[in-house]
Write a structure and sequence with these properties.
2 copies of one chain form a homodimer. Chain A starts with a helix and ends in a 7-residue tail after the last strand. In chain A, strands 10-9-11-8-7-12-13 form a 7-stranded parallel β-sheet, with helices on both faces. In chain A, helix 2 packs across helix 7, helix 6 packs parallel to helix 7 and helix 10 packs across helix 11. Chain A is 43% helix and 20% strand. Chain A folds into 2 domains: 235 residues, Aldehyde Dehydrogenase, Chain A, domain 1 (3-Layer(aba) Sandwich); 146 residues, Aldehyde Dehydrogenase, Chain A, domain 2, CATH 3.40.309.10. Chain A has 413 residues and is an alpha/beta fold. The radius of gyration of chain A is 24 Å and the shape is globular. The interface between A and B is large, with 65 and 65 residues.
C-alpha cells in the first residue's frame, strides 16, 4: 500500500490536469468509465461476493448486507448514473459576476473546481462510482475512502473507473481509493490539508463525530434530519394527512423523512385521530394533549423530541400557536427540512422566515428535499451546515470561485 | 464572569431576533452604536490606556503597542466605520434563484443570516467595533473574543455597542464579548457548536493552527499571503516595474503585499537590474541566475520561497517559461493573490486559468485584493480557503441561504 501522503500527491497532481480539462474530455471520461464498469461487471460482482460472505460470516445485519450487495442491475445502475451526468451542464468556467471599478480594473468572479474532493463513506460500494462521477463532471479529482466492509468491491470498482479515465486520456489518479481501512488511516486522511480541498463524509453519527473531532481539512457535513411537519390551524386537513403520511411513510429510513408531527391545538381534536389512522403501522409517541385525543399514542420522553428515528416511528406534539410551533422546531430540529401545512399565507411566510433550516416546505412533503427532486440532476449529499453549501448538494456545490482582475498597470495609492 | 455556554445561549437568542429585523432597524442600531462609541470616547480611551500601560510594562513591541493604542481620531474612525455601513445594501432577503419543477413545486433560494458569527482576534481593539458592524448589517449576532492584551479596551467598546443596540430596540446580546481570555476558554469557544454558526479567526499563524487543531465549529480561514508577481517575457517593463514596486513597497506588512518576484529569463537581463534599483530599500534574495544579473541580491534558501516576509524583503526567481512560472507559484503560493505582467493575452489567460488562488491579477498590483478595493464597501477578512468564501469577504460572505419550497399538497411517489 502506498502511504497516504503519496496518494495525496498523486491525486493533487491529477486534479491540476482535471481542472483544465474541457467539458468534452470530462464527458468522454464519464462514458469510458461507464463502459469500463460494465466490462468489469463480473470481476466487480466476484469481489463483492467476497465482501458479502465476510459480512455474513461476521454476523452483519441484513439491512447492511443489502446495502453492500451488488448484482448486475446495480452495476448497470452505477454505469447509468455516470452516463446521466453527460446531460448536465458543466459547472466550471461560468462567469458568476463581473464589474468594473472606478480606476478601470475589471473584476470577474468565475467558477472553478475545488481541486481534490475527499469522500469518506460506509458500506455502499455504489458511492465509489457515484461520487467519482460528480467529482469528474465538476473538474475535481476524487479521493475515496470507503469502509473495510466493502473494500474488495471498492477496489474492483475503482480499478474500472481508473481504466475509464486512462481510456479517455485523463490521469488515472483523478480517482484514488485509499485501501488502508484502519481507523488511524482515516484520521490521517482527515488531516491531509496539503492534498484535500474538501471532505464530504457520508455516514452516520459516529463518522460525523470523528470528522468534527479529527479533521483539519475543510469539510461539509451531511448531517441528521430530525424533520418536522407542522399542521397549522388553517390547514387543509386532507392535504395535511396526505403530506404527513408521505413525509413519514414513503421512505422512513432517509434523512428527509419526517420524524415529528406538530399540530395546532385548535384543529388537534379533528386532525389527530384522522392522521393517526392514516399512519397505521407507525408507532406514535406524544405529549399529554396528543395522548388525550388518541389513546394509541404512547408517552414521549424528552429524548424523543430530539430523535431521528429513521423508522416507522413519529413523535406528536400539540402547540397553541404558530410561535410555539416555530420555537419547538428551532429547538429540536437539526436544520434539515421543516414543513408547514396551512392555507394562511401570513402563517406560512412567518414560518418560512423564522424557521432555521436548509429547506422550509409549504404545503408539501419534506421528502422533496433532494438533489434530483430539486432538479440538480444528481446529488453528493444534503448539507446541514450553513457554510459553503446548505441543503441538497449538486455539481455547483462542488465548485469554488476565483477572482480574475484585469488592469492596465493600475497601482494602489 | 458568565460561563461560555450561558453567553452562547444569550447570543443565540439574540441572533433569532436579529435575523428577522428590518434593514431600517439594523441601520438605526448602527447609528445608535456609532453615537454610543462617540459618547463613551473618554471611557474607552481611559480603558485603552490601562491596556497600553500594561503592554509597555511587559515589554511588548512598539508595533504591537501601536496597533493597540487608541486616540480620539481612532475612536471616531470606528464610529465612522459603522456609519459607512448605512450606505451598503442589506445582503439579507435577496431571492438568489427561483424555479419551478414539473410537479408544480416552486423553489426559491433566499439569502439569510448565518446566525451567530464568532470572531477571535488579536490586539486590535477596533476589530471589536468593525466586526460587530458587519455582523449587525448582515443580520448576525457577533460573538467576540479578543486578546487579553486589549481586554480593557474591548470591554469598554463592547459596552458602548451594546448601549447602541438597546437604544435602537434590539437585544444587547447581539454583541457579546467573552471576557475570559484564558487559552482554555479560547479552545472551548472554538467548540461551541450549539451556539456558533461561523468562526472567523483574525490573527497570525499560531491562532490559525489552534483553530485547525481545536475548532469543531465551522470556520473560515483568513490565512497567509505568499503572493507572487510574475513578469512575463511579453511584459511592458515600465508597467512591470511600477506594479512590482507597488505590490512590494506600498504597504509591506499586509497579506496582499507581494513577497516574491518571478521573472522570465528572456527579459531578466534587461528587467532585473532596473527593478532592483526601483526596489531600493528592499532586501532581495534570489536564485543563482538572478544573482548573476544583480550582484546585490543575496542567496535565497529553500525556505525563502515559502516565506511571507510582511516586510521590505523579496525573493527573486528566474524561470524559462510560463509553465515553470505557474508551477513555481502553485508550489510555493498560499492561494491568496497572484499577478502576471504580460501584454500577451494567451499567456495571461493561461496564467489566470491555471494558477490556483483566490485572486489572479493581470497587469495590476496584488494590493488591490481587498474588500474596499473590490467595491464591497467593507471587509471582514480575506479567505484563503476554497469553501464558502474565497478572497475578500464582505457582507454577502456573512450570509447563508435557505430554500423555500411552495407546493399545493404534492407528495413524493
Amino acid at each position: 500500500m502506498a502511504p497516504l501522503t503519496e496518494l495525496g500527491e498523486r491525486v493533487s497532481n491529477a486534479s491540476e490536469v482535471l481542472a483544465r480539462s474541457s467539458s468534452e474530455q470530462k464527458n468522454e471520461a464519464l462514458v469510458c468509465a461507464a463502459d469500463a464498469l460494465m466490462a468489469a461487471s463480473s470481476e466487480i460482482l466476484h469481489s463483492n461476493s467476497v465482501d458479502v460472505i465476510r459480512a455474513e460470516e461476521s454476523g452483519t445485519s441484513a439491512t447492511v448486507i443489502d446495502r453492500l450487495r451488488l448484482d448486475e442491475s446495480r452495476v448497470e445502475a452505477m454505469a447509468g448514473g455516470l452516463r446521466q451526468l453527460l446531460e448536465l451542464s458543466d459547472p466550471i468556467g461560468r462567469v458568476l459576476e463581473c464589474w468594473s471599478r472606478p480606476n478601470g480594473l475589471e473584476i470577474r468572479k468565475v467558477s472553478v473546481p475545488l481541486g481534490v474532493v475527499a469522500i469518506i463513506y460506509e458500506n455502499r460500494p455504489n458511492v465509489t462510482s457515484d461520487a467519482f462521477g460528480l467529482c469528474l463532471k465538476s473538474g475535481n479529482a476524487a479521493f475515496l475512502r470507503g469502509s473495510s466492509g466493502a473494500i474488495d468491491s471498492n477496489i474492483a470498482i475503482a480499478r474500472a473507473l481508473r481504466k475509464g479515465l486512462a481510456a479517455a486520456g485523463l490521469p488515472e489518479d483523478a480517482a484514488v481509493l485509499v485501501t488502508d481501512v484502519s481507523h488511524e488511516a482515516a484520521v490521517k486522511f482527515m488531516q491531509l490539508r496539503e492534498h484535500i480541498d474538501c471532505l464530504i463524509p457520508r455516514g452516520g453519527p459516529a463518522l460525523i463525530s470523528s470528522v468534527l473531532e479529527n479533521a483539519t481539512v475543510p469539510y461539509v457535513i451531511d448531517g441528521d434530519g430530525n424533520c418536522h411537519v407542522y399542521v397549522d390551524k388553517a390547514a387543509d386537513l386532507d392535504l395535511a394527512t396526505d403530506v404527513v403520511v408521505n413525509a413519514k411513510m414513503q421512505r422512513p429510513s432517509v434523512c428527509n423523512a419526517a420524524e415529528s408531527l406538530v399540530v395546532h391545538s385548535e384543529i388537534a381534536e379533528q386532525f389527530l385521530p384522522r392522521v393517526a389512522k392514516a399512519l397505521t403501522g407507525v408507532e406514535l409517541v406524544g405529549d399529554e394533549r396528543a395522548r388525550n385525543l388518541v389513546s394509541s399514542i404512547a408517552a414521549a420522553t424528552n429524548e424523543d423530541w430530539f430523535t431521528e428515528y429513521l423508522d416507522l416511528k413519529m413523535s406528536v406534539r400539540v402547540v397553541d400557536s404558530l410561535d410555539e410551533a416555530i420555537s419547538h422546531v428551532n429547538t429540536h430540529g437539526t436544520g434539515h427540512s421543516e414543513a408547514i401545512i396551512s392555507a394562511d399565507n401570513v402563517a406560512t411566510e412567518e414560518f418560512a422566515h423564522r424557521v432555521d433550516a436548509a429547506a422550509v416546505l409549504v404545503n408539501t412533503s419534506t421528502r422533496f428535499v433532494d438533489g434530483e427532486e430539486f432538479g440538480f440532476g444528481a446529488e453528493i449529499g444534503i448539507s446541514t451546515q450553513k457554510l459553503h453549501a446548505r441543503g441538497p448538494m449538486g455539481l455547483q456545490q462542488l465548485t469554488t470561485t476565483k477572482y480574475i482582475v484585469n488592469g492596465q498597470g493600475q497601482t494602489r495609492g
